[in-house]
Specification:
This protein is an alpha+beta fold and about 140 residues long. The chain contains 4 helices and 10 strands.
Length: about 140
């Protein structure tokens, strides 16, 4: 079974919107730390840019974010119904409000088996990454 058979897997924008002083946080891999979002150091983008980004990859309650570039494998589950950020170069696993499925996948991704599957899919030597295609591939059984 593939993730894409029961989860909508996509990612955030690949554009580099201009930073503004008053706007919406732009979450990148740097902001995902220890199953939390660290807003310190994140830039903000205009409300117009945020709206455009959300057309492709709006984060909603119970969606899961997974860092894809650099530090690969940091996992965050959004539990709030109102999200104060948009995403860039972060995997988005959409659950469309299905808390039970989201919880199951979230805890799996945090487990040693889940982290091992992520590590097996990493590519790159200078800067590691995991592609959306690799996230969507079947999860191998570990015996």
């Amino acid at each position: 079974m593939k993730f894409e058979d029961f989860i909508d897997v996509r990612d955030g924008t690949h554009d580099s919107p201009k930073a503004v002083e008053d706007g919406v946080y732009l979450l990148t891999t740097k902001g995902l730390k220890n199953q939390k979002i660290d807003f310190e150091g994140l830039k903000k983008v205009s409300f117009q840019d945020a709206k455009k980004i959300n057309e492709r990859s709006i984060v909603e309650q119970y969606d899961i974010l997974l860092s894809m570039i650099g530090t690969v494998g940091n996992v965050y589950q959004e539990r709030k119904s109102s999200v104060p950020y948009v995403i860039k170069n972060v995997a988005l696993l959409k659950f469309h409000g299905d808390k039970v499925l989201s919880d199951w996948i979230y805890y799996y991704l945090l487990s040693p088996s889940g982290q091992q599957q992520i590590n097996l899919r990493k590519k790159g030597s200078t800067q590691q990454f995991i592609s959306l295609k690799d996230i969507r591939t079947p999860i191998a059984r570990i015996n």
